[in-house]
Amino acid sequence: MIKLSKHQLALMREMSESDRGVAVAGVAFLEVNLGFLIKAHFESSIQNSAIGRRTAEARLKRVHGLYNRIRLAHELGLISCAKQEQLERIRAIRNQFAHDINVASFGHEKIIALCDGIPGWETPLSEMSEEIRGGAASQRYTSTVVTLHHWMDTEINNRKEQMKDKSDNR
């Protein structure tokens, strides 16, 4: 049985909101987790010192927004090109919901097209019947967000364990 963290449980609750709420909340959780991952990277590379934590926090404060965090995480080698593409596509979907008042559901043609471009899915949404396209787009979005969130949680916990092991071995 998979044990969900507090963040994952909160994410699951938010994913039952309106389509716009799902898009905005999903990206918010990914942005926070990406920040935690970057911070954990900086802390582990400066060997868990108080100076390392302050340096990590100072660097992270200068990296605002998901776009910049995606770029930095990729440049640091924390995320692969495939995960970078998934995050960029998720960000584009959120931006469409956030900046176009006419887009209110995953059934909107712009959102379907963006969801169709999320890497890692085999069946194009255009091959599905019109009645199920919106639901399939929503499922594709939420599945990708939850998968990325879970992957980031795992990476963060692994880095924390490595730092703990290093400090225990001193």
Explain this structure.
The chain has 170 residues and is an all-alpha fold. The chain has a single domain (6-165), classed as Nucleotidyltransferases  domain 2 (Four Helix Bundle (Hemerythrin (Met), subunit A)), CATH 1.20.120. The chain has helices at residues 6-14, 19-45, 50-61, 65-75, 81-99, 109-116, 130-168. α2 crosses α5, α5 (81-99) packs antiparallel against α6 (109-116) and α5 (81-99) crosses α7. The longest helix is centred in the C-terminal third of the chain and has 39 residues, at 130-168. It starts with 5 loop residues before the first helix and ends with a helix.
What would you say about this model in short?
This protein has 170 residues and is an all-alpha fold.
Q: Regions with pLDDT < 50 over 5+ consecutive residues?
A: none
Class by alpha and beta content: mainly alpha
Kindly give the count of domains: 1
Number of discrete helical segments: 7
What's the CATH superfamily, by name? Nucleotidyltransferases  domain 2
Rg calc: 18 Å
* Mean of pLDDT: 83
| Secondary-structure element pattern, one letter each | HHHHHHH
Give structural attributes.
170 residues; mainly alpha; Four Helix Bundle (Hemerythrin (Met), subunit A); 7 helices
